[in-house]
Amino acid sequence: MESRQDTLNDLIAMTREFCEQRDWDQFHAPDQLAVGIVTEAAELLQLFRFKSLEQLKQLFESPQGRERISDELADVLFFVLRFAQMNAIDLPTAMRHKMAKNDLKYPVEKSRGSNLKYDELE
After folding, report:
1. Is-above-0.70 flag for pTM?
2. According to CATH, what is the number of the domain 1-89?
3. DSSP string for 64-96
């Protein structure tokens, strides 16, 4: 495990370089990258399917299980980073903008401790 923390820009650059070395830009249209995000997210979800809480705990505690989860999560991140890079989306700005919207939809006084969707909050 590396001790340094990569920035988001470092990760985007690493992803871009990896893909450019392999001449993959031609395969990374927005629809294909969106498919990749969903496919990899489904592979992450598959690791948890039909597992009891105890089995989930064991999965996270085992080095092999934790590595499988980490690998699938990294695959999702790869496609998110690549989608943003290929389509000139500034992820930090997009995230700040979305969180500001979420702050309005989910005011603390109404949503604290609640799992209700914004349109169900009283």
Report:
1. yes
2. 1.10.287.1080
3. HHHHHHHHHHHHHHHHHHHHHHHTT--HHHHHH
